[in-house]
Amino acid sequence: MRVVCISDTHGMHRRMDHLIPDGDLLLHAGDVTKNGKIEDLAAVEAFFREQPHPHKVFTPGNHDWIFQDEPVKACEMVPSAICLIDQGIEIEGVKIWGSPWQPEFHNWAFNLPPGEALAEKWRLIPPDTDILLTHTPPADILDRCKNGEHKGCRDLAARLREISPLLNVFGHIHEAYGQETHGNTKFVNASICNLGYRPVNPPIVVDLAE
Ligand SMILES: [Zn+2]
Fold first, then answer.
1. What are the DSSP calls for 18-60, one per residue?
2. Which terminus of the chain, N or C, has less C-beta within 10 A?
């Protein structure tokens, strides 16, 4: 299965420097809207509708307020992609789980305090998950901010050690774009936008073994 990973497009789908490669599955790890408002969803739907991938899945991010305020309505307004908010789906035998939460970060959507509140969300991830789609990185993996601080989620890192999925795709920390492998898991920070909110990074393609 060819998985095409993007994140943090912030509504700039028509201004991306790089084309989105074709594949079996398009994953978007959140911050999909321009301003997190209901008016932004028509553009999000148009973007997903235009993509050739047979399967398209996303989870919202901390800018995507409308998905926190009115999750059912917001997801219904993007029918061309599957919106996962602490939910899973199986596609061609591959089990995918999506979750938008991240450690508190100013006053944004899908914020939770580190510790029990976040750990409770991560415990919902089934142990047999193949692809985990989160907005936040786990702590210490592709989560280094410009100021040198690691802002990923420690509770997510702990859960990942328990379940070892094949792939964890996220974004959130734009300047930590890239990919790394640790143990059985490939980690992808697929932020399309850079720190200055310019959509300059190419999508990251991952081929999962059959
Ligand atoms: Zn972002």
1. SPPPP-SEEEE-S--SSSSSGGGHHHHHHHHHH---SEEEE--
2. C
Of 199, 152, 159, nearest to 180 (Cα)?
Answer: 152
Compute the distance between CA of residue 102 and CA of residue 114 in angstroms, rounded to an integer. 8
Q: How far apart are alpha carbons 202 and 96 in whole angstroms?
A: 23
Region of residue 24 (phi > 0: left; psi between -120 and 50: alpha; otherwise: beta)? alpha
> Does residue 210 carry a pLDDT above 70?
no
How many domains, in total, are found in the chain? Answer: 1
CA–centroid distance, residue 63 to ligand 1 (Å): 7
**pLDDT tens, position by position, 93-104:** 999 999 999 999
Residue numbers of the domain that contains 75 = 2-207
Tokens read off for 202: 């190419």
Distance of CA 117 from the midpoint of ligand 1 (Å): 22
State if pTM tops 0.85: yes
